[in-house]
Each structure stands twice: as C-alpha cells, then as structure tokens.
Give the backbone structure.
Amino acid sequence: MKSIAQNSIHWTYSVAIFCALFAIQQQKATAATLSNGWNYAIDSFNDGVTGRQIGGGEFEFYGLAIKETSDTAFIAINSNLSLAGYADPLAQRGNINYGDLFFNFSGQNFNTANANGSLFGIRFAAGNDSGVATTGVYRNVTAKNVTQTNSGFSNLNQFNTVVASQGVTPSLGDLAATDPYFQQTGNSTILNSIATGTKVGEINFLTPATLSVLGLNFAQFNAVGSQTIGFSFNKSSMPSGNYIANFLAECANDAIAIQGSFEAVPEPSTWFGTLLGLSFLGIGAAKRQIKRKIS
C-alpha cells in the first residue's frame, strides 16, 4: 500500500504532466499568430504583383507583426519593398512606395470608419504620397486613394482577379482577400493613404537587430522578405481595445491586415497609488518589526 507521501508525489507528478501538456496545447493553438509577445499576420507569399510577375517581386508583402508593453507599441513589417520605394516611370512621381498604416478601433468596416473620421493612421514612409506633412501617428483620420497616380489597381476585385488568373490565391493576412471589411468594387475605391488627420505622436524607427532583441522572428513562419522595417510609438496616441490594422502598397499591388487589441495605458495616478500603497505596507512592516524587538 502506497504511503501518503508517495501518493502526494504521484499526484504532484501527474499535475505537472497535465500542466505541461496543457501548455503545449496552448502553444500549438496560438503559435500561428502569437509568439514571444508578437502578434503576427502572415500574408500569402506569392500574391504580390510586380509588372507581369505574380509573386516574389518587389511588391511581395510577407508579414505584419505588432507587440505592446504597458506604454509602447512596436510594429514590424516583412516585405520585399524598401522604404526608398520602387522606381516606376509610369507613376506620377516616378516612384511607388508604401501607403500609410491604418488602425480602426470602431468595430465598423473601413469605409464607414473613414466616413466618420474615426480612423487612426501612421505615416511611416517619408517618401510616399500621404496627405499629412510628416511621419508620425495621426487621429481623426480620413483616407484617400493614390493608386491611380501610382500605376495601380482601381479596386480590390481587380487585384484579386489578376492574381487568381495565375492560379494563385490572394490574401490579406488575417482577412480573406474578398472580406467585406474593404470595398471590393468601384472606381478608385482602394483607400491606402492618409488624406487628413491630426498629429498626436512621433514614431521611432528600429533596426532589425533591435527587433530581434525584442523577440521578433518572421523566419519561424518562413516569411523571409528582403526587408524588415520596424518602428515604435507611445500607446497613449491611440485608444485601447480591439482593432483591425492594415496597409497597402501605393499601387495596391499587395496588402496586409492584422486583427489585435491594445491594453489600456496605466494612468499615472494608478502607478502612484500602487507605489504609495507599497510604501505604507513597508512602513507598517518596519513598525511591526520594531515593536517586536522592543517587546
């Protein structure tokens, strides 16, 4: 007959095994999008359109990842398109770049949020056709179409049709290529650049080495584009809650969207109250120690 101690050890060992198995299952369930604190959206690796080439060209977007701390948000992009853009004589400026990155916390589709001026936007490519003057974070954003001046697609349905004609399935990262979140048809209906907005924050660019230290690893998803672009901003520039974030090339030759959420930035008063409470606990403990010694 097993002793109480043996039963206790057996029970503890069983619990440990159960917890380990549960942790493995949890990792399997979340590894596709969440890894080392980064939330990843991985796009199709062969739906970028560069001239007559479908897949693998300058306009191939591989992934978008977002990480947060209590007060900072980190953005990382894996792509073949550099921040210098792509030289194209058919574009109005002779160069095609990234459009702007949009955040939508409203729960509405993109067009509705745009009509209400409730979008947030980040201009991160200084050489693009954005309607705002400098890189940074903007609120009360409205969006515009710049595909027509960048030798691009008129609507998303046109892009999807061209890609599908080559036997490739287009995607938008966390969203299906045909997701009604975006308007699919119509003339010049791809909204990929900030038209207007109020600047509320700056962005700080991050090197690939810094991103790696922060735990970024696109390669685990085989997303190995030639460019890894990263930047951070203060989370107080945006609200907390669920969002859909997205960006497109200025020609809309590829696009990617990600779904995620931001936790609220702790209020300074909350931190002060916590520190004050801890200090009182420390004082109380010290007083009790002194009282014991005296008695």
